[in-house]
Design a protein that fits this description.
Order of helices and strands: HHHHHHHH
Largest sheet: none
Protein name: Metal-dependent hydrolase
Distance between the termini: 30 Å
Keywords: Membrane, Transmembrane, Transmembrane helix
Organism: Metallumcola ferriviriculae
Number of helices: 8
Transmembrane segments: 22-45, 71-88, 95-116, 136-155
């Protein structure tokens, strides 16, 4: 799934129950993709890649960036952060790690082209999901639903500013 949608849907699903802890949760829901954003910014700022198609191909063709994405998408790393948050009773750290783990579980289902192992550093095969989040039909459904939800909340807030 794309980074924006990770943050949007996890916010929508967990905002009511996490209310005061939603900020570390939302940050955790997008942080596994931080390496990709860093690589994209580098390519753009150095003029090595212009906006348009081929960004992910350029990023994944670089072994260092691919390794960074493997590390950032490792269930072991985020499970360790989640467990550490539980052990030291740090709610923000716990929800940060939980959201990152949920991000990865969603990616396992929705990545068929740019696949990862999700179990770094174990030398296991890459896992391919059952649907490609880059397929036009998936993007269309996803962003249509995002738009509907945003319009619903805007209309609700417009009709009842106190909500």
């Amino acid at each position: 799934m794309d980074t924006f949608s990770h943050g949007f849907w996890l916010y929508l699903l967990f905002n009511k129950c996490l209310h005061k802890d939603i900020i570390p949760f939302i940050f955790g829901s997008v942080v596994p993709d931080l390496g990709l954003f860093t690589a994209a910014a580098y390519l753009f700022l150095t003029g090595k890649k212009q906006p348009g198609a081929g960004w992910l191909e350029a990023i994944y063709s670089n072994p260092a960036w691919r390794l960074t994405d493997e590390v950032m998408h490792s269930l072991f790393i985020w499970a360790a952060i989640l467990i550490l948050g539980i052990v030291i009773k740090n709610t923000a750290l716990k929800f940060f790690g939980l959201a990152a783990a949920i991000h990865i579980l969603i990616d396992i289902l929705t990545h068929t082209k740019f696949t990862l192992t999700y179990l770094f550093p174990l030398p296991v095969h890459r896992i391919s999901g059952w649907v490609n989040y880059l397929d036009p039909w998936f993007l269309g459904v996803n962003f249509s639903l995002v738009s509907i939800v945003i319009l619903y909340y805007l209309a609700k807030h417009h009709n009842n500013p106190a909500s």
